[in-house]
Amino acid sequence: MLKIRLARAWKKNSPFFKVVLTEHTRPTKSGFKEVLGFYNPESKEFKINDLEKIKKYLSTWTQFTPRVEKLMKDNNLSV
Hints:
Elements: E1 2-8, E2 17-23, E3 34-40, E4 45-48, H1 51-58, E5 63-64, H2 66-74
């Protein structure tokens, strides 16, 4: 099953996350199929590059992780 989840990026002491599409059994830091957006917890910035692509993935047995789902709701991005 595919999941849309956060993957840590950048360097130590500077949190930054990519919103990625990946297989749910893979480790968080390993490869992913596609980058869909990003989240910066310091500035509370959350951006999705292509909302239509996420809608397409959700129609084909893909799920959000709880944290990404909460970020989508908090930023009024309905899917």
